[in-house]
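Researcher: Re-running this chain for the archive, since the previous output was lost when a drive failed. Same request as before.
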Amino acid sequence: MTRIYRFCLVIFAVYIVALILIRPDKYIDNAINTMNSNSRFAVNTGGGDFKDIPVTGVLGPFYQCLKAYKRVNSHRRENGKYRNLLLSVGDDILLSIQLYGTEAHSFQADLIKGKNKQRTNYYNINCDISLLQGDINK
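Model: Regenerated structure tokens:
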């Protein structure tokens, strides 16, 4: 009886962990659909080495790459220096983007509506940060 009991506990634990890992993200579609390639962005980061990233501009081709996001477990990490970039997109979205070198490898979005904030899970992307289209006159 003890073996059966232990087996049932293990199966139950595996089931719970699987539910947690594959839980749906109810905010990601809203975040992606709130943006488009013409959405304005501004770098919102204190200090750091971001000379290679435009301060303001439009998402441009970076948005198309962002839309091709994948779940976190399906990504390989890039080489290069790690940086965390915060981009304000319009008035409603804050993107936290993890960079290795010039490659954006993952992101999380905060949707901000007044005092309410909705946060997505982390998602993997393979987007070169040069896809952001910076303003010519900064």
